[in-house]
Amino acid sequence: MLQSPSLPSVETRQSWVVATTVLIVMAVAFGAPWITVVALKTIAAEVHGERSVPALAGALVWIGAGLGGIVMGRVAERVGIRWTVIGGAVMIAAGLALSTLGPSLPLYIGHGLFIGMIGIGGINAPSYVYVSRWFDRRRGSALALISSGSFLAGAIWPSIFERVIAYAGWRNAMLSYAAIELVLIVPAAAVVLGTPPDTPHHATATGAAHTQASILGWPPNLVFALQMCAIFTCCVPMSMPQAHLVAFCSDLGISPVHGAAMLSVLLASAFFSRQVWGALSDRIGGLYTMLVGSACQTLGLALFLLTQDEIGLFTVSALFGFGFSGLVPANVLASRELFPVGEAYWRIPTLLLCSGSGMATGAWIGGVLYDHFGYYAPAFATGVAVSAINFVIISTLAFRRSQTPALA
């Protein structure tokens, strides 16, 4: 969208090889936190049934990944993404090993510091910036593809983890997956993740149009603050079904196997539909894609309040996965559309910090509200309310863009 017709495209076949490799790396890296989600009730049984304990461990992954992304984004600018990804894989494996020492403190440190801050933090945010520099014409599709790694992880791993946990326990599941992380991620990063082709010549050209003192007619940092609020409030409701669906199904008498399968359906739907959202964002831009996605997410989450039977929940899970899947990459794309490329190394990780904080908040609040009320309806109702706030924020930005087309 921002590519100047006088410049050749930076996109090549290698661009898609890199994007596909990053997708695989993300799918493996984001598999680690799902062990705690699937084993939520089992881990909670070791701390007097308090589900907020494993839920908080999962929340700390998102907070840690967001904070670590800001730091590691700067590190990747200096040493290259290859080394931050390799280091991240090693730290995720270390975090899984530490977490097996048990709830609560080792679980919190292993997930928040090692898996989140140093591990996924060294992989997730730097990858967005890195891949965006391999693309100019289909950047929205590329960002949608790599951001689907977390959904692909959720589609593949929960059912596998459920069987491994049932057979060998959650601790052995973590240790086994630590080995898988190292075997798959380290060689892929070492071989494929080289220097991107986004030269200063292209960076200057793509950012030149956005050197004005205002964005959408407002101070740039005000627009960015609204973006931060938007990505936070979209991720709070987004995380609630993801973190608690297996336990929610168990409360309704649905077997853990079917609950894990339902979670896989939700995330598989999110993975495939995210490619649709990516193609749409290449046509209409990030802000308008965010607006449509926010409306779909609000509706999908509301349906969880109205559905109790297994077939209905499978259907609602698929619809919810479709609805929310385009929001995060569309927000990242909107940032690249609105702000200079030279600021991407800190703006994108900051947005992902807000995203991770929202995911953490939603997952944790879901556990807290369940512990207080004894059922999940209040948590889902809270998610619907936050999603409605998200729609209002995005509508404000989209309206400003429609009123200032020359600056959009």
Question: Your description of this structure?
Answer:
By secondary structure, the chain is an all-alpha fold. 79% of the residues lie in helices and 0% in strands. Helix 4 crosses helix 7 and helix 12 (220-251) runs parallel beside helix 17. Residues 199-211 have low confidence and may be disordered. The longest helix is centred in the middle third of the chain and has 32 residues, at 220-251. The chain has a single domain (13-403), classed as Growth Hormone, Chain: A, CATH 1.20.1250.20.
Count of discrete alpha- or pi-helical segments spanning 4 or more residues? 18
Report the β-strand fraction as a percent range.
under 5%
Shape: globular
Distance between the termini: 11 Å
What is the quaternary state of this protein? single chain
Helix content: over 70%
Name of the top-level CATH class: Mainly Alpha
The main pleated sheet reads as: none
Mean pLDDT: 88
CATH architecture, by name, is: Up-down Bundle
At the fold tier of CATH, the topology name is Growth Hormone, Chain: A
The class by helix and strand makeup works out as mainly alpha
Label this structure with key terms.
globular, Growth Hormone, Chain: A, 18 helices, 408 residues, mainly alpha
